[in-house]
Amino acid sequence: MARRTYRALFREEDLFFFEVKVKETDLCLGVRAERFTPDLVWLVEKKVKQERALLEAYIEKDPVFLKTLQPHRPLPDAPEIAVAMAEAGAACGVGPMAAVAGAFADLVGRLLTRYSRDVIVENGGDIFLKSTRKRRVGIFAGNSPLSHRMAIEIPPDYTPLGICTSSGTVGHSLSFGRADAAVILAGTATLADAAATAVGNRVQTPADIEKALAFAREIPGVAGAVVIIGDALGVWGKVKLVPVLPPENPSP
Length: 252
Known about the structure:
The protein is α+β, with helices and mostly antiparallel strands. Helices cover 32% and strands 26% of the residues.
């Protein structure tokens, strides 16, 4: 699926969207249209470069942090982003790198909330959301017949919120499961990212949906989950699904 097509799943007309890319960190950002200035692009680029430099320097000292698929205790001098990733991984039983995309979404999202009351940051399908109005985030689930058919409706009082997706059939991120989509809502995108990986890892067949949702329920800070595999769907927690109508004149 093309990146721009995916990003259409959460775009809102009242927001101004722009993109920032630094190495593998590829962000789509939305702020209130009247709050956007070119300085925000520079601020985001600066923040991402700083945090990437800190994380890369730390990984040189602690290479296990990069490679392990298990919870990992960071060194005492680890930067804030590494600590947050390690804590999220430990809470979900996965390695800290399972939370890297969500961690950058959180860092940039918190930065932008100083300038705009409504903020969306998407990083590889993982989203930080702060909003003063109801928002809808569509669900892409690969070749599942449920893909593009529904969205999660997020009331403003649920935000700030992380909304992250893991898939065993779409994209290049590592997953040991076969879920077309494991979507997690959590207090931070860092935690939601790690939890989505952990939940997705537990789904090989539709029969696994119930146990995967039960696992999500036990993670402190996780507010809701959606699991899709084929035409099977499971939902738990603070998740309101709404139908998405197909376009009247779909592109060929």
